[in-house]
Amino acid sequence: MASPFKLLHTDSKTAARVGRLTTAHGVVETPAFMAVGTQATVKAMAPTELRTLGAQIILGNTYHLMIRPGLDVIQQAGGLHRFMGWDGPILTDSGGFQVFSLAKLRRITPDGVEFQSHVDGAKLFLGPREAMAAQATLGSDIAMAFDECVAWPCDRESACKSVELTLQWAARCREAGRASCPSAAKDAGKKTGGRESPLGTTSLSRGTPVLQHQLLFGIVQGGIYGELRERCARELVAMDFDGYAIGGVSVGEPEQEMLRQVDVSVPHLPADRPRYVMGVGTLPQLLAMIARGADMFDCVLPTRSARMGRVYTMRGAYAIKNAENRADLGPLEKGCACYACQNFTRAYVRHLVWCNEILGHRLLTWHNLHVYLELMRQARAAIVAGAFKEFQREFVARYVVKKENDESD
Amino acid sequence: MASPFKLLHTDSKTAARVGRLTTAHGVVETPAFMAVGTQATVKAMAPTELRTLGAQIILGNTYHLMIRPGLDVIQQAGGLHRFMGWDGPILTDSGGFQVFSLAKLRRITPDGVEFQSHVDGAKLFLGPREAMAAQATLGSDIAMAFDECVAWPCDRESACKSVELTLQWAARCREAGRASCPSAAKDAGKKTGGRESPLGTTSLSRGTPVLQHQLLFGIVQGGIYGELRERCARELVAMDFDGYAIGGVSVGEPEQEMLRQVDVSVPHLPADRPRYVMGVGTLPQLLAMIARGADMFDCVLPTRSARMGRVYTMRGAYAIKNAENRADLGPLEKGCACYACQNFTRAYVRHLVWCNEILGHRLLTWHNLHVYLELMRQARAAIVAGAFKEFQREFVARYVVKKENDESD
After folding, report:
1. What residues of chain A lie within 8 A of the CB of B345, using their CB?
2. In this model, does residue A363 exceed pLDDT 70?
């Protein structure tokens, strides 16, 4: 099978690039922002609205979905796409990040992690084999390898051990991934025994199982240690993943440290595979990552901040609850083409947010996601036009973050 | 001006009737259900979605809107329609019910009520004059007279005093209503001095004030005392309102008592004016009211219950959180044409509601409002077809309320 990723343009002044990733549920133009749909819903949005916004791909969280509603329910529904009514590409994380950040850990072994659900305390186990099986059941277009994400700060010895474990688990995931993909399994000499069927198929139309090619990305870890990042990247590349993520960023470290992890990882990743920086970031950060050669991003900021009344615009961020918006009859962002800005005023949205009305959350989510997706569209156009460096410089120069009470960015 | 209400059909076997109420923002076919938009939003819904649902008219709450965002903000926005982006008819209540049920009362005088805001404790005053001025500022299509709604149970003496006050206030509202309507003011011999302009106009398109004819409904009170209801109705009718509401029902009394208040009030109301039963009710109750000659209804049940996971259908009500829905791949209601039922399963909606996801509230609200509006459509068709009695009997016979944990109905 041809590589699912096609590199279309590479910027001459930065490492920015434009590409096209083909998945079982459609094409993703990169650089791409993935809206986060943790619990089988991008918070406050309906799937048709995501389409209207031009969302190309969304993210689902294996850990949350295995706890609620349970993988059996999603399997019966015919996979995550059918369950949530989204027929576009979905990337699922492996659950590793949540196991280490949300759950109460019980025991870590080479086979995986025993932990307790953060919802009801149920005892669960997740390792590379289980994470791959879960993602096969979800039927996502892109699965992520099961990894260990260390906290920040983290000493060198712990980071080193974590990279070891992440690489062992990556190898197991790669093997399980080949096993679950019939064509790959054939190439690998039919190592899979009787396991193709439950893992390698997903019911796209209820009752009619359809073979699906699920892409698998490896995750570069290594904390703040350049040589660990390099080693992790090199060994993952040797395993030949469909794409590579840079994990363990945006875990509390300063922005410059985060950018450095991308700088030290990217040179060791192949140009012909997509690069996904996990859990990042603000609008200027996305441009900084793109300039460093990153292609894909996910972040809860546009959706989570919306629920806190925070508005992102192409010229900065502000808090809608501020008194200056009380009788402001202008849109959330002047000139914005989104549904919220075309139909409602700041004064109205501010009123809704003060009253904790669902429509307020909806309109801010709509607008914020529009801005994130619009930035990606503009970035792609700038790269194609050979003007990305100027685009980034001008964007950052006019981007003002207004003082506020809620989380900073 | 011709009467805004045209009676089109009267049922031969019951008192049910079909009519057409013409307002400044459009026509309302009756019997009509009005979705409640307390804080300038029908909870969880966007205005375009209400249109898609076939909502003909919605309700706004003067008390809540004067507290948040404040009448000055809505005035600057050009009225409630423009503020909330809904260009169809709006009925506003007078604030009386909320003053007596939500606020901390300070003092009742013949001029009105001094009270403290339930939000921030601010000292406010609302009486017939203020309520009419507020509703003129909101620019609603139908204003309600300022009344006193007594609690249940209520002794005869208190109910009698309350009717006295309600009638005094109704007369003042009627006078203010005539004053605020330029044509009526002319008829009334220009009693209004210089007050036409601020009360009688509302800015429909920003910056371009347009004269608007606001209808005014009187409210029949009297508790459970038939002779008080009769007296109140007769005196209100003598004041010649555009429509008549039956208030002080659904305040905790048994259903039979509620129906009796409609029975004793309706005979004293003119056939050529719409009759609005306030704050009612379940689907079978709506049919019972229609059979008694009622034309308009509002109730928080479809929207509030949605947020509690309660599903209304044409065959009964159930709790989506129940275990039996965990892996149910059918729609919320079999055969339902609404957006939620056409696109999502019970299993998915149950999952969303368990996770307290906004989309869960949205889908249940969408469906519940669809059912309420659909029942009105079917009731109108049945009345026109001369088959309302059979329609009601069959509906009630198959309507099953499943046991659940949340509020009963």
Report:
1. 77, 83
2. yes
Provide the pLDDT for residue B246: 98
What does each C-alpha distance from A299 to A115, A307, B152 come to in angstroms?
25, 14, 53
Tell me the chain A residues in contact with residue B40 when contact means C-beta distances shorter than 8 Å.
Answer: 348, 351-352
**Beta sheet of B17-23, edge-to-edge order:** B5-10, B17-23, B26-30
Does residue A405 have a pLDDT over 60? no
Interface of B with A in 350-409 (CB under 8 A): 350-352, 354-355, 357-362
- Residue A111: CB atoms within 10 Å: 15
Provide mean pLDDT across the span A136-163. Answer: 95
CA–CA separation, B180 vs B175, rounded Å? 9
Task: Tell me how far apart the alpha carbons of residues A203 and A80 are, in angstroms, rounded to a whole number.
Answer: 10
Q: Which residue has the tokens 């099961």?
A: A146
SS3 B194: coil
The two structure tokens encoding residue A342: 């075309």
Buried b (16+ CB within 10 A) or exposed e, A138-150: bbbbbbbbbbbbb
User: Which chain B residues contact residue A343 at CB under 8 A?
Assistant: 47, 85
Residue A129 main-chain phi, psi, to 5 deg: -65, -45
Q: Where does B344-387 have alpha helices with state H?
A: 346-354, 358-384
Tell me the torsion sign for CA atoms B299, B301, B306, B308: positive
Q: By the 8 A CB rule, do B176 and B203 touch? A: no
- Nearest-neighbour CA in chain B from A210: distance (Å): 19
Residues in chain A: 409
Active site residue A93: yes
Provide the pLDDT confidence category of residue A271 given band limits of 50, 70 and 90.
Answer: very high
Terminal C-alpha separation, chain A: 42
Smallest Cα distance from A409 to chain B, Å: 25
Pair B173, B131: CB distance under 8 Å: yes
Within an 8 Å CB–CB cutoff, is residue B83 touching chain A? Answer: yes
> What is the C-alpha to C-alpha distance for residues B301 and B406, in angstroms, rounded to an integer?
12
A136, two tokens: 């096969």
Give one word for A279, left, alpha or beta, with left for phi > 0 and alpha for psi -120 to 50.
left
pLDDT at A17 over 60: yes
Q: Which member of A93, A141, A147, A242 is catalytic?
A: A93
Q: Which site among B352, B355, B361, B365 would you substitute to test the A interface, given the most A Cβ atoms closer than 10 Å to its Cβ?
A: B355
Work out whether strand A201-205 and strand A208-211 pair parallel, antiparallel, or are unpaired: antiparallel
pLDDT value at residue B2: 73
CB pairs under 8 A between A and B: 107
Query: What pLDDT shows up at residue B403?
Result: 64
Q: What is the DSSP letter of B123?
A: E
Instruction: Tell me: ipTM over 0.90.
Output: yes
For A281-313, the pLDDT digits (tens) are 999 999 999 999 999 999 999 999 999 999 999
Categorize the per-residue pLDDT at A106 as very low, low, confident or very high, splitting at 50, 70 and 90: confident
A111 catalytically annotated: no
> B283-291 vs B358-384: helix axis angle to the nearest 10?
30
Rounded Cα–Cα distance for residues B373 and B349 (Å): 21
With a cut of 70, which residues of chain B have pLDDT below it? 1, 180-212, 403-409
Arithmetic mean of pLDDT over chain B: 91
Question: Any chain A CB within 8 A of the CB of B68?
Answer: yes
* Partners of residue A44 in chain B, C-beta under 8 Å: 358-359, 362
Residue A68, min C-alpha distance to chain B (Å): 7
